[in-house]
Structure formats: structure tokens, C-alpha cells
Design a protein that fits this description.
This protein has 517 residues and is an alpha+beta fold. Helices cover 40% and strands 19% of the residues. This is Recombinase.
């Protein structure tokens, strides 16, 4: 009887381990994680029967993390032959910008009867209130770490750009990347895909082979002097067997890129597009680009380059509104569906950006051309107007707070306002939508990633042109990140409804307290 009891006590629990390493610290190497997990498994009577490893993968989202995806799939389809998952710590599970996403994947495991253990953490993941609170805090901290790191990296990259160093991306046709040491001495040219290995090394752009330099100048000559179009230039290069820097045939787009990129006159330009924290890629306005003029040796003369820019701008102006709409109609006859990519690829048609600049949006140009997309895209124009209104509204709030004697700082990445160093607020504009019955509705997705103490919800009128009222929603009373407001919403929500921001401003006012002598 005693022997059977010992045998039962020694029965091992089957477990899988998940390890992830990005690139930031050696302490998070998969080998180090494995050591801690193995030690945890030995003490807790786990037998590791499977390993899921994502090496060199960001923890910002699940995309690209094939092992995590495979593990979750195994758990959901019932093919997981283990009862527990062992992870180094909360941050290795993921630095999701939405902490609820991290909790969601753990919940999927728990629902399947598989527990998740964080081996290097100081709390027991037993589902109790203490572990739930600590996990929530650590998940938020993991996401915040990524945001802070992103800001620091961006600032560092901007500084290097201003010093004349290249930051990422291929060199381009006619150019090469040169590795230099900390004293500025050239070390070697980097082949495509090669990176610097020493932190003190830097990369600059230098001229490529003489034949490529001649081709770049020929392209500018054909465009500026001979008056050829981009498609004609591409056809000429292809007929001569000249390939792009990627070994591909030339197209209208690749020729246009060569004609418009300032690196060919030696300028170092950065932040033309943003893709922070794996979010949506956006094109930035030129006034926030980071640049260093004359950082590299020029491939073409400034006179030739800026003449080409002038031709491109004037060519866009030469099209009348009717000409541009006619081009769209001709394109519609050849293609049942229009898109920005299709417009940019078409010959003898202005670019999609030209349509946006001339008509305010592609949707408006489509409408004038008689093209009706499958979906109703009116909301795009409304959202664009709201985005244009936002800076004025947030500026008004900051001015009001300042006039009330409050100190206000604004986070450049999240637009979060920190007031008196005590509490935070964010503003969200909600467009008005009309139901088939004529009722008005306002949908709002409360920002959970930045978790402001107060969300200022701005409701627009039925025409989405003027502000109707404001809702001041404290984070503690927001039960769902997705709210649907009607014209009246009952006492629970309408308690927070205000016709102006006077009450919100009064919250920040300082009152002197008299001290008795």
C-alpha cells in the first residue's frame, strides 16, 4: 500500500514549454528561459513533452509568432497532449499593446483545461484575485515597456539621421551602403541583407558602380531634357536589359521613385512613413520628416533633380478637373474596380495622391467620375473631417486647462494628456450615424491600450459638422470598451453628459488652503 502511494505521488504531469526571444536582452535567450523552466518543472513535478519556440520575434502581436499560433491551435483543436504550459514570465507570453489580448490567449488555454504557469514570476498563477491583479499590472507594464522603447529608439534614429547616418532600407539603384567605424573610416560595403555587427559602427550611402550612376543620370536626362514619360523610360531600360537594384524589370512606379527620392542629391530623409508598434502604416506630412541635407555624395545635380520635381508638379497642374475625371472614366472602362494601386500603375493617369490633393479624397473623385464602390465609403470623408477638427478641439482643451492654472503635457505618440501630474485624459470624436428609422446613434471604442483616467467623448451632430455635447467617462465606470450611445441613455450614462467642458476644466483648478497661524 505504501509503495503504491509513493508511485502516485511521483506521477509526472505532462507539460509544454513556450519560449520567445526578440532581440533586446541576452537574459531572455531561449537557453536561459529553458534553464528556469526546467528547474521549475523539476520542483513542481512536470514532465516537458513539447517545446514551442519563437526566436527573434516581437511580442507586440501574434502575427509572425508561428509557434505561439501553433500552440493555441493545438489547444483549441484538442490535439494538445499535455495538461500545462510553462512560460518564463508574463512578458515572454507577449508584450501585447492590448493587455486583454494577452489574457484572451491564456483564457483559451484555461477553457481547454490547460493551465499556464509563469516560472520566473514571484506569484502563483492560481486564478485568485491576487494573481489576477498582478498579471494585469505586469501585462500593462510589458506593453508600456514596448511603447517607451519605441519612443527611445525613434529618438535615437532621428539623432543618427541628423548626423548623416543611414537608417534601414535598401540603398537603391545607383547607391550602396558603406559600413564605417566610430572614427568615420570606411570598413566595407554591405551586400543586400547584410547588417552591421558592432554597435559603434554606422552606415552611410555611397555611389554605386559607374554604370549604374550613368543610368540614373540618363533617366533624369530622358525625363527632363527629352521629355519622356516614366513608362517610356521604363520600356527603354527594359529593352536594353537593364534591371533594377532588385533584379526586376522597370515599371512606371520604379522610375517615378528614382526621380523623386532625395537620396540621389545626397539628402538623408527619415520618417516619411510610420509603422510604430506594429500598428497601421501611415504616410507623414513633409513638415515632420527628419532630414540631413548633403549627408552623402550626390548622384545627380540639384538643378536636374529639382527641375524633375517641378515638371512632376506642373504636369499634375496641367490636368484640369475634367481631364482628371475623364482619366478615371477611361480607367473604369478597362477595370470594373478602381483602387489607388490601379490608378498609380496606369499610364497617362495622374497619381492617386494627385486626386486626393485636387478633390480632397479619392471617394469624391470616384463620385464625380460616376464610380460607385461596392461599399458605402461616405464615412471615410466624415472621419477625415473629424481628424482635421481634432487638433483644434484638443488645443482648446489644453488652453482651457492652462487658463485654469493647470499644468498639462501631451504624449506625442498617444495624444494622452497628463494634467497636474495626477491624472490623464484622452479625447475621442464620435461621428453621428442615422438608423433606417431615423434615430441617431454614436459608436465609441474606448482606448484600452493607453487607459486614460478620463475619456472625453465628443458627440457630433447629425450632419457631423458641429459638436453636440460631451461625455466625461471615468475609466473605472466603463464596463465595456465598445459603447453605443443613443440620444438619451438613461441615468447611468447621462450622468456624465455635459453641454460644455467647463466642469472638466474646473476639476483641474487649484485651491489655496489657508493655514492657521
Amino acid at each position: 500500500m505504501h509503495a503504491n502511494t509513493d508511485q502516485t505521488e511521483m506521477k509526472l504531469v505532462r507539460a509544454a514549454q513556450y519560449v520567445r526571444m526578440s532581440t533586446e536582452h541576452q537574459q531572455y535567450s531561449t537557453a536561459n528561459q529553458d534553464d528556469i523552466i526546467q528547474e521549475y518543472a523539476k520542483k513542481r513535478n512536470f514532465e516537458i513533452v513539447k517545446t514551442y519556440a519563437d526566436e527573434g520575434k516581437s511580442g507586440l502581436n501574434v502575427a509572425g509568432r508561428r509557434s505561439l499560433q501553433a500552440m493555441i491551435a493545438d489547444v483549441q483543436n484538442g490535439s494538445a497532449d499535455y495538461e500545462a504550459i510553462l512560460v518564463y514570465d508574463v512578458s515572454r507570453w507577449g508584450r501585447f499593446q492590448d493587455a486583454d489580448e494577452s489574457a484572451y490567449y491564456e483564457y483559451l488555454c484555461k477553457r481547454a483545461g490547460i493551465s499556464v504557469h509563469y516560472c520566473a514570476e514571484q506569484f502563483e498563477n492560481d486564478g485568485g484575485p491576487t494573481s489576477t491583479i498582478i498579471k494585469s499590472v505586469k501585462r500593462a507594464m510589458a506593453g508600456e515597456y514596448s511603447r517607451e522603447l519605441s519612443t527611445k529608439v525613434f529618438q535615437g534614429q532621428c539623432r543618427l539621421i541628423e548626423l548623416g547616418y543611414r537608417q534601414g532600407g535598401p540603398a537603391g539603384f545607383g547607391l550602396r551602403r558603406m559600413l564605417i567605424d566610430q572614427s568615420g573610416e570606411a570598413k566595407a560595403q554591405l551586400a543586400r541583407g547584410e547588417c552591421k555587427s558592432l554597435q559603434t559602427d554606422r552606415v552611410i550611402l555611397v555611389k554605386g558602380p559607374e554604370q549604374e550612376i550613368e543610368t540614373v543620370n540618363r533617366v533624369y536626362q530622358m525625363f527632363v531634357v527629352e521629355g519622356r514619360r516614366e513608362r517610356q523610360i521604363a520600356d527603354q531600360l527594359n529593352s536594353e536589359g537593364i534591371a533594377t537594384d532588385l533584379g526586376r524589370s522597370w515599371s512606371r512606379g520604379t522610375v517615378r521613385q528614382l526621380l523623386t527620392n532625395e537620396k540621389y542629391i545626397g539628402n538623408n530623409v527619415y520618417n516619411r512613413t510610420s509603422f510604430k508598434l506594429k500598428q497601421r502604416r501611415v504616410s507623414n506630412e513633409p513638415d515632420i520628416w527628419i532630414r540631413k541635407n548633403a549627408a552623402f555624395e550626390a548622384v545627380v545635380s540639384q538643378e536636374l533633380f529639382y527641375t524633375a520635381q517641378g515638371i512632376i508638379r506642373e504636369r499634375a497642374k496641367c490636368y484640369s478637373d475634367e481631364d482628371m475625371i475623364t482619366c478615371l472614366r477611361l480607367l473604369m472602362e478597362q477595370n470594373p474596380t478602381l483602387s489607388a494601386g490601379l490608378i498609380d500603375a496606369a499610364d497617362n493617369t495622374p497619381t492617386s495622391s494627385t486626386y486626393r490633393n485636387r478633390f480632397g479624397s479619392l471617394i469624391r473623385a470616384y463620385r464625380l467620375a460616376g464610380y460607385q464602390p461596392d461599399r458605402d465609403y461616405d464615412y471615410i470623408e466624415i472621419n477625415q473631417k473629424l481628424r482635421e477638427m481634432y487638433p483644434d478641439l484638443i488645443g482648446d482643451v489644453m488652453a482651457r486647462l492652462g487658463a485654469a492654472g493647470a499644468s498639462v503635457t501631451q504624449d506625442v505618440d498617444t495624444d494622452l494628456l497628463l494634467i497636474n501630474g495626477e491624472y490623464s485624459a484622452s479625447m475621442m470624436l464620435s461621428r453621428c450615424r442615422q438608423t433606417k428609422s431615423g434615430s441617431l446613434r454614436w459608436m465609441i471604442n474606448v482606448e484600452q491600450k493607453v487607459a486614460p483616467d478620463i475619456t472625453i467623448l465628443v458627440r457630433m451632430d447629425a450632419a457631423n459638422e458641429h459638436v453636440v455635447d460631451y461625455y466625461l467617462l471615468p475609466i473605472m465606470d466603463i464596463q465595456s470598451p465598445r459603447l453605443l450611445l443613443c440620444e438619451t441613455n438613461g441615468v447611468y450614462l447621462d450622468t456624465y453628459q455635459f453641454d460644455s467642458l467647463d466642469y472638466f476644466t474646473s476639476l483641474s483648478e487649484r485651491t489655496k488652503i489657508e493655514v492657521a497661524a
